[in-house]
Each structure stands twice: as structure tokens, then as C-alpha cells.
Amino acid sequence: MRKNRWAKKVGQSLLVIGLTAVATGSSVSAMADTGDKLLLTGGVSQVEGAAGGGLTPWAFIGGYGTDDQIGGNTFATVVKTGDFRLNTWGALVGIHDRVELSYAKQRFDTLAAGAKLGIGQGFIFTQDVYGIKVRVAGDGVLEQDNRMPQISVGLQHKQNNRGALVRALGAKDDEGTDYYVTATKLILDHNLLLNGTVRMTKANQMGILGFGGDKSNGYRAQTEVSAAWLVNKSVAIGAEYRTKPDNLSFAHEDDWFDVFVAWAPTKNVSLTMAYADLGDIATIKKQRGAYASVQIGF
């Protein structure tokens, strides 16, 4: 109980700080119009709220604010596979291109598959994700003469609303924290962005099915990679791959993959579409489908 109260207070504090910074940033944006970063270098909004690709965070700090500015994004995302639907919405603030605070609300709908799983058609899982990311070295955009990428460290604390059920399925907890290190480099001569992330996690299906399990309850390092080619200044195409832990006996967990196109007609709006292959989820096979996201930022 003490752990839950502590986590809730931390999450609420991050959210209050972020909202305060967004309010401050709005006045900065009004004076400077929009931040000074290059188009698309703030990334899109990842399904857990961080700036990056759709599936994995990048080292870049979200928003278009540079080292003397504040930027931010709000987003809404839907992923619809053959049997499930994930809706996510949230916001982030980037402070002086150094610190990123984020929040995401995930709503996982089992649709008709809920009846097959014995939990009821249209059964809903929800999860709150509070994130922080800090740039610790490099500048993946400006330091083109240096091979060193931009490097950031971050964490995502997750709280699931279905504690009794996920424990019945074999999970050890209904909340947990992921820790990650990520490196990103934009090679402007080739219009190419490369990213690699190592995540320490216990999360089952991002935490939707809880944390830890009857097979394993220890942190495991997972690899997440992405690459994007900038077709022009406002369009990028690319792919991502994310490995996953396999903690639960009742259901094997597969790695995730997507191919995407992102379009940013202005710095204030970006749209992302993707084909996502999420493998088997909770014994339901071959969960593949569409990913769509809209982001509003400054």
C-alpha cells in the first residue's frame, strides 16, 4: 500500500510539473511562434507517451523547443488489430531540450475476444504511464561532424487498473517501472535517422497484463531499434522492432514490429500511419493491423 501511494504521488507530481511547464511554454511559443528545431526532429508520440517512434522512444526531447525554449505535444493514437483495440492519449513537455516529462492514458479493449478469454466481451484494461527522459550526452542533429549520437536515459512508471485479474493470470504486480537508455543519430547527408534503445522491464504486453510472472519476475534487458528515411522535409518512412519479455506461462509474448509513414505539414501538426504486427496476445494468434496517430505540438 505504501508503494502504491508513493508511486501515485510521484506520478501526480510529474503531471503537475508538466502542466505548469506547458502553461509557461505557451507564452514562450506565443512570442517565438514555434520552436526552432528542424521539422520532424521532435519525433512522434510513442504509445507510452515518450517522444520517438510509435513503438519505441528516441533520445530526442519532445516538442520543438531548443536549449532556451520550452516545447510540448498532445497526441491521440489508436491501434486496431484483428481482435483488440488500444486507444492512447496523452501529453508531454520538453524543457530546454534537456528534460522531457510525459503522461499517457492507455485503454485496451478486448472487443469480442474478451468472451473467448472468459472475461466478458468488451472487457477494458486501462493503464496510466508517467515518464521522464533526460538528455545526458550529444546532439543527434547539430553535431553532424561527430559520430557520437544523442544519448538519453528515461523511465516510465505504469499503473494498471486490473490488479486482481492480472495476478490471477500469473502476474506478480499491477504496477511497475521500465528503465531505458536510448541513442539517436540523424545523418542529414543521407536523410537518415537511426535509433537504438535498451529497456529494462518486467512488463507483460507493456503492462496491460501486469508485471513479472510465474515464469520470471526479474528485470530483463530488451532491445528496441528504429530507422527512418526523410523523403523530404515533411515526410518520413521507416520501421521499428521491439523485443518483449515472456514472463507468463498461460500466454507466449511475441516481439513487435511496424512500418510507418509520418507526415508533418507544419510544426504544429503531424499524422502517422503504420502497419503493426504485435504477434500473439493473451493466446489470441496473429494480432496484426493498423496504427494511426495525430499529434499537436509547438
Protein model, in words:
- The protein has 298 residues and is mostly beta strands.
- The chain has a single domain (2-297), classed as monomeric porin ompg (Porin, Beta Barrel), CATH 2.40.160.
- It is 14% helix and 46% strand.
- It has a twelve-stranded antiparallel β-barrel with strand order 3-4-5-6-7-8-9-10-11-12-13-14. Strands 1-2 form a two-stranded antiparallel ribbon.
- A hairpin with a 4-residue loop joins strand 8 and strand 9.
- It is globular and about 55 Å long.
- The N and C termini lie far apart (39 Å).
- 47% of the residues are buried.
- Mean pLDDT is 89; it is low at 16-32.
- It comes from Rugosibacter aromaticivorans.
- Keywords: Signal.
- This is DUF3034 family protein.
Can you describe this structure in just a few lines?
The protein has one domain: Porin. The protein is built from three helices and 14 strands. The chain has helices at about 1-30, 115, 165-170; strands at about 45, 50, 70-80, 85-95, 100-110, 125-135, 150-160, 175-185, 190-200, 220-230, 235-240, 255-265, 270-275, 290-295.
